[in-house]
From TrEMBL:
Enzyme Commission number: 3.5.1.1
Enzyme's top EC category: hydrolase
Segments passing through the bilayer: none
NCBIfam families linked: asnASE_II
Organism: Calocera cornea HHB12733
Matching Pfam families: Asparaginase, Asparaginase_C
This protein's name: asparaginase
Signal peptide: 1-18
Length: 379
């Protein structure tokens, strides 16, 4: 209700004249806070305005040792500290900093990321806000990233950034990553590309990019689809004209506070012994299950027969992804009871399935359409 009235209010005020000053009270207050507390130089009103949501993670991490890159406290430093650590930011943008949360990746969930999506959309509705930046723990960054990519309608750039080394480490990567993220969010050529992930001088699509290594700086990759661009210093450089994932679905989360429960099951030799895991998942109330299949979605045939029959009986949607970390599963035909995740890895497929179930209920044809975005087989 709150959001509908907010959006209706903006529409009445006339979208063309909406500025941050015209936004609802809670948004203006956050903006004022920042104007009042921002650092050293102060914000420069003639620069492009962006909104920056800090959520915690390693980029805001603190350790007693300058050499520790594990075992530190994630989400220890506030958004203002992060902005102050990079004074160059104030020279490229008039930044609105908001402390959305200050937690490690493992504390983020879809209730929070849907709220983040709505908060970002509210700010992007203002004409004078040109883009948004989110800083996030890297472990589940790709899940929040695809949530934002699937639920924010604006063409304005949304950039999600993290760091692999805590702020207290020698050669901490956070400050430069943040400067690049802010620069990307203000860059006119960044519009119309969906949500982007940036770390380690690279720009990737939120839809495809995944964390490939638990510690190295060069961890966010989409082996098959590649990067959208990179940076020369803090200046973005794109390889292609603005492009979006083919037929990417959009989900309106205005009215969702929680999503249907979906779990992920992993394939391995001997999994026939573990059919009870399927029964346990169903007993816990899942509405969908994603399989991290071996190879092209493979599972033990005995397990698979029982899995399909248990799920069909309980009206649980079955999505098949791959545990290989790359590539896409062969599309399922229209009549198959299972749904191919296509190019989405299991954790991204889980978010897509939750959103699709929330929108369509248990309608396998409709869910297949959402998953067939980058490999349309249903026309
Ligand atoms: C800064 O805070 C003071 C005191 O709360 C307030 O009077 C002033 O309007 C604020 N400045 C801006 C730009 O919001
Ligand atoms: C504000 O930004 C404009 C545009 O880049 C620049 O010309 C001006 O010098 C800046 N003002 C301050 C006080 O830094
Ligand atoms: C910001 O810009 C001003 C004016 O060009 C310059 O004097 C100052 O050194 C810049 N600050 C940083 C941190 O780059
Ligand atoms: C997500 O976290 C928030 C805050 O800790 C909590 O209130 C909410 O219930 C959680 N949602 C889910 C789906 O776990
Ligand atoms: C974000 O949205 C929630 C409601 O979903 C609202 O209570 C909160 O004030 C918003 N925060 C900001 C900074 O816009
Ligand atoms: C959200 O709820 C409001 C009020 O019930 C309704 O008018 C609106 O159409 C809903 N939006 C969506 C996308 O379902
Ligand atoms: C099928 O589902 C019903 C509830 O809808 C349940 O009572 C029954 O035990 C299930 N049968 C099997 C074989 O899982
Ligand atoms: C299921 O979804 C399809 C495709 O969106 C739609 O044509 C069909 O009417 C839906 N079926 C039901 C029972 O809602």
């Amino acid at each position: 209700m709150l959001f509908t009235s907010v959006l209706a209010g903006l529409a009445l005020a006339g979208a063309a004249s909406a500025r941050v000053e015209d936004l609802p009270r809670h948004l203006r207050l956050a903006y004022r806070d920042l104007v009042n507390t921002t650092s050293t130089n102060g914000n420069n009103a003639s620069l492009p305005k962006i909104v920056y949501f800090g959520t915690g993670g390693t980029i805001a991490g603190s350790s007693g040792s300058a050499t520790a890159v594990t075992g530190y406290q994630a989400g220890a430093l506030g958004v203002q500290t992060l902005i102050d650590a990079v004074p160059e930011i104030i020279n490229i943008t008039n930044i609105i900093g908001i402390q959305f949360a200050n937690v490690a990746s493992d504390q983020m969930n879809t209730t929070l990321t849907m709220q983040l999506s709505r908060n970002i959309s509210e700010y992007l509705a203002a004409d004078d806000v040109v883009g948004a930046v989110v800083s996030h723990g890297t472990d589940t960054l790709e899940e929040t990233a695809i949530m934002l990519d699937l639920t924010i309608k604006s063409d304005k750039p949304v950039v999600i950034v993290g760091a692999m080394r805590p702020a207290t480490a020698i050669s901490a990567d956070g400050p430069y990553n943040l400067l690049q993220a802010v620069s990307l969010a203000t860059y006119p050529g960044a519009a119309g590309r969906g949500t982007m992930i940036t770390l380690n001088d690279r720009i990737g699509s939120a839809f495809y990019t995944t964390k490939t290594n638990p510690r190295s700086l060069d961890t966010f990759k989409a082996y098959e689809q590649g990067y959208l661009g990179n940076f020369v210093g803090a200046t973005p450089r794109f390889w292609y004209e603005p492009a979006k994932v083919l037929n990417k679905p959009y989900f309106d989360v205005t009215n969702f506070t929680t999503l249907p429960h979906v779990a992920i099951l992993y394939a391995y030799e001997d999994m026939a012994l573990d059919v009870p895991l399927v029964s346990a998942a169903i007993a816990s109330g899942v509405k969908g299950l994603v399989i991290a299949g071996s190879g092209d979605g493979g599972t033990d045939s005995t397990w698979n027969r029982q899995f399909q029959s248990l799920c069909a009986n309980a009206s649980v949607a079955m999505v098949v992804s791959t545990r290989t970390g790359d590539g896409s599963d062969a599309p399922d035909g229209d009549s198959s009871p299972t749904i191919s995740a296509n190019s989405l890895n299991p954790e991204k497929a889980k978010i897509m399935l939750q959103l699709s179930l929330a929108k369509n209920g248990y309608n396998i044809t409709a869910i297949k359409k959402d998953f067939d975005s980058d490999y349309p087989t249903l026309g």
